[in-house]
Write a structure and sequence with these properties.
The chain is an alpha/beta fold. The chain has 17 helices and 11 strands. Helix 3 packs across helix 5 and helix 7 runs antiparallel to helix 9. The longest helix has 48 residues.
Amino acid sequence: MTMRSWVRAALMGALGAAELLVSAAVHLGYAFYVFGTAVAADVAASLVKGLMAGGVAKGVAVGSVDEAAAVLDGAVPPIVLVHGIFGFGKGRLGGLSYFAGAEEKDDRVLVPDLGSLTSVHDRARELFYYLRGGRVDYGEAHSAACGHARFGRTYERGHYPLWDEDHPVHFVGHSAGAQVIRLLQQMLHDGEFAGHATSERWVLSVTSLSGALNGSTRAYIDGVRPEDGRSLRPMCLLQVCRVGSVLYHWLDLPWLKRYYDFGFDHFGMSRRLVGVRGLADILVAGKRGPFATGDWILPDLTIQGAARINARVRTFPGTFYSSYASRRTARTRRGATVPSGLLGIHPLLFLRALQMCRWRYPAGAPPPYEGYRDEDWEDNDGALNTFSMTHPRVPDEHPSVPVEEDGAGGRSLRPGVWYYRIVEADHMAFVINRHRGGVQFDLVYDSIFRNCRRLCLPDRADADASGSELSPDRDLRPN
């Protein structure tokens, strides 16, 4: 190696290390901020309750399981909001809402708590039992192949035990949650839940909100090797994530996991089970755990991983599909793609938005699908590529219709077709912090919920044949 090559390699290594330190500091800082905010709010609420007679303010209604069940009586299909990676459902992080309170817009909304880093497969299985009830069964073959327990937590009573073909549900998925919903519907079609006669018609509609329908180039930037779409580089942000989540589950502190849970309990990584030697096997030797078998969310968020899921999952002719693809980039006069404004994008996402604009698939690696072009994947929202969010298109294109600002000519929405529109927003605009989304936050969720309520069809067969009478320009656009 020449002196010039050595200096260049050293400089690139130093820049890479600096970028990793900055990225890790920003992400960990934001995580601690969210966690600390939730704990502080919970402590404040407890102190207030302690000052009130009986612990509850006069005139405040206290909900119960029976009351919730009475609301979800099957007369109107519930709307199920499915969180994305690092997300959480109702009951985690104190009173914090992943969907920033959007669930309060309708009295028949469920917000399940699924594994925040578990695979799309495992989360789809958890979602089924959350709704229907029973002990989570990850599947015998899958569990054996991935080295974890077959069974997970038990829901003594499902949150919607009536769920069947006559009592379908609407699903809305943010980010990775969209793929979880799609895989669940395919599992329902394939009859993969033992003891349950299921079909894809249990799902009335699917709405993808900044959904990871075709993967993301950010997975590679954060550390997944594009050569195989699974293994991690030795030094990367995902290695920090790996070490942190393993230690979190190994410590197994009940009070901590009540606030937040990565969802890896079925891998049995607790110190009570594996001890110090087991921790070394997981962290250093890589002999066991989700990161050894690839049964976690990031491999599913690569383009290759999404293509594997999409090759199996259909767009069904009796289900209504829509998607909102977010974008926080723009083209310069010279044709370059750049983030659209420093103040218009979340600090957590700005650096990644810039990197995703410039990222190029390695020349020596086989492309993730036939016809791949780097320029298609430049526009992004800081976490996902806009190209990926519109509709399933890798490896095969699913039926789709773009919905423009000026309407779509009064065409009816038909089941079995993805109606998509692009919104100018970053990946965090519609979750966690409602104020960041501004007016657009309410307009988008109002549009989604309004569409769900208008799709309460008395006869699904008629919908399969002729489609809904909803007009895309009136109902898909948040106006």
